Each structure stands twice: as C-alpha cells, then as structure tokens.
Amino acid sequence: MTASHPITVVGGGLAGLTLGVALRQRDIPVTLYEAGSYPRHRVCGEFICGRGIDVLHALGLYPKFVVAGAVEARRAVFCEEARQYRPKALPRVALCLSRHAMDRLLAEEFQRLGGELRQRERFTASPYPAGVVRATGRRIETRPKRIKWIGLKAHALGATLDADLEMHFLRGGYVGLCRLAGGVVNVSGLFAVNGPVPELASHWRDFLRGPVGSVLHQRLERAEFINESFCAVSGLNLRPARPEKASDCCVGDALTMIPPVTGNGMSMAFESAAWAAEPLAAYSRGERTWEEARSEIARRCDKGFARRLRWARWLQWAVFHRGTRAVLLELGDRCDWLWRAWFSMTR
Ligand SMILES: Cc1cc2nc3c(=O)[nH]c(=O)nc-3n(C[C@H](O)[C@H](O)[C@H](O)COP(=O)(O)OP(=O)(O)OC[C@H]3O[C@@H](n4cnc5c(N)ncnc54)[C@H](O)[C@@H]3O)c2cc1C
Q: Which residue, 272, 217, 259, 232, is CA-closest to 151?
C-alpha cells in the first residue's frame, strides 16, 4: 500500500537519524529538522554497547560504521582515584566510533535513501501535531534544588590505556576513556556542580584530567587534547520518565535519558528508533491512527527500558557515594559473575 501521511522527525541526533533511515527503508516520506549541521562533535563516550548493536546489524548500518572507522572494544578497567582494579572482558563486544563520523554517516545514509534533511532549521510548533516525532535529545532539568550535571567531552592523542574502555571514578564525577581509531582516545565525563562553572572554556582540561595522583591523571599525563573536539552540555535530567506519560511521540533521550555510567544511551536511541519505525509506517499507510501508533511506541519503549532504567538509576546513585562505590568496585573486582550481572541488568 502507498504511504499517505508523511512523517516529520524533529532532531537529527542518533535517534532521529536512525528513525529516518528505518522509515526510508520502508519507503515512507520523511522530513527531518536538525537545528545544527554535520559533521559536529557531541558530548558522548562514543562507546556503543548492548542491543543497539543488533539494530545496527538489522538496518545494515554495522558494516558502514566499520568502514567509517568504528573499532571493537573487548576489555574494560575500573579505577577509583589512585586505585586500579583488574581489567575485565566485556560480556559483549562493544563498538566505538566518533560522533563526528557517526552522525554524518547516518545523515548521509538518510539522504541517500531519499529522506529530506533540513539542517540549521529549528522546528518550533507546540504542541506537536499528528505525524511529528520528537527526537530532540535530553530533557532539561528545571527543578532548582536538583543536582546539576555537566557533561564534557574531548578527543586526545597520546593517552596510555590499559584497556579499550576505562572508567575513572573521582570525587563528584566520573570520566570514561575509550579507544577510537587512529590512536585517538575519547575523554568524556559527567560532573555534579553547584551551578554555572565560571571560565569552563579555560578549565575543562582540569576537569577531564582528574586530580594529580589519580590513575586518570597518569593516563593523560602525556596526552594532548584536540581542542576543536571539545564540547560541553549542561542541564541534564537523569530522572527516568515513563514514555506512556508523554503527550508527544518520542524517541531517544527525548523519551528518557539513562545515566551515562551505563554506556547505554546510544543503544537506547537506536532501539527506540527501531521500535518506532513499524507503527509509524503503519500510521503513514493509513492502517493506524496517530494515537494508536504513538501509544504502541510508548508501550514498547516502557517495556523494553523499564528494567535497565531502574538499575541504572540505582547504579548512578551508588557510584556517586564513596562508600557504596568502593564496595561495588571491590565486589565487581572479585566476582566476575557479579560484574556480568550488572552489565546485563543495565542493557
Ligand atoms: C557525558 C556523557 C557521556 C555519554 N557516553 C555515552 C556512551 O559512551 N555510550 C552511550 O551509548 N551513550 C552515551 N551517552 C548518551 C548518548 O550521548 C545519548 O543517549 C545519545 O546521544 C542520545 O541521542 P538522541 O538522538 O536522543 O539525542 P542527541 O544526540 O542529543 O540529538 C538531538 C538532536 O536534536 C536537535 N534538536 C533539538 N531540538 C531541536 C528542534 N527544535 N529542531 C531541530 N532540531 C532540534 C539537536 O540539535 C540534536 O542534534 C553519554 C552522554 C553524556 C552526557
């Protein structure tokens, strides 16, 4: 049957672009609005892990990621300030690719398949009418008494790592190091702050290098940051939200954001896009109403993400409390099965 209603996607991050690709593969007319342009750096650990990798295979994107320079990650190591724990095999191989390359690749693929991409155009209608999907990224934390999170990211050359992925826990934050292609290392971190950070533009290196004496500081001692790759984000809202309660049809972080410590946000962006594609295609072909499509997508996302969001919230709380964090790291170091269980519960 031919499509009757076109779909509009607002937001050309991973969720919006992947949804655009999946809809174009079904011959659905799609227009995608992106406020920015490509290529661009994004705050992200650039470590894809979990079921999102199956989505990349199903959409035929995995080999394209590899051609664009994606590399596999097999081992992880955890460090807490000056202490390093034993390296661990990742229970599932992960894929690491710079967002600079990833978002551009997806944007090109969407256009190659006939999607209409409107870069540097902000979609402003409110509320969203039928046929419009929200893929606008993180929800902003507006409650004044909540912890304020900032996320920072930069690429570095010359860092020395003991594993493909390293997580460094510090006072008031954590920093992940992830090996990318060509000797580049992604350095990205989440930090709890009291309010706006004055002169962040000149202090970001201090945040990302960690305190003198920490393992992180040693790893980055001889490293040089690639200044143009630096980016920052604030106002992150890490409270899980129930998709069924949203009035718009949402995918990716617009739905709900999982704490970055899990390294599962990109996977959730791919998964939610894949779950949304068929109900939206059915709406477009006139086989479902907009409300039926919207609530089917919300139900699938609620069901698919509920467990990992619960565990991730707990894990985020635990790693920000020194006592629980030390116990967790110690237990994870001794019991491989426990580490594998945490890994699978958050993805
Ligand atoms: C510090 C940190 C580290 C992370 N590390 C990892 C990791 O290692 N692994 C992982 O899987 N996840 C990680 N994540 C999470 C991951 O980056 C996100 O979950 C993912 O980018 C979500 O994709 P998205 O498409 O929903 O949103 P985004 O990628 O944020 O895209 C949203 C897009 O919408 C556009 N937009 C917004 N409003 C409008 C509008 N009105 N009109 C037009 N366009 C609009 C924006 O310009 C943006 O391009 C991390 C996050 C942080 C903060």
A: 232
Confidence of residue 238 (pLDDT cuts 50, 70, 90): confident
Closest C-alpha to ligand 1, atom 6:
45
CB-based burial, 34-48: b 16+ in 10 Å, e otherwise: beeebeebbbbbbbb
Ligand 1 touching residue 225 (CB < 6 A): no
Q: List domains and CATH numbers for the chain.
A: 7-142+237-345 (3.50.50.60)
pLDDT digits (tens, 9 = 90+) for 183-207: 999 999 999 988 777 788 888 999 9
C-alpha–C-alpha distance, residues 152 and 159, integer Å: 17
Q: Where are the extended beta strands (E) located within 120-256?
A: 132-134, 148-157, 165-170, 173-179, 184-193, 224-234, 249-250
Q: Is 239 in the pocket of ligand 1 (CB under 6 A)?
A: no
State pTM to two decimals: 0.96
CA-closest candidate to residue 253, choices 240, 100, 41:
240
Which residue has the CA at smallest separation from atom 22 of ligand 1?
Answer: 253
Q: Tokens 């609530």, residue? A: 295
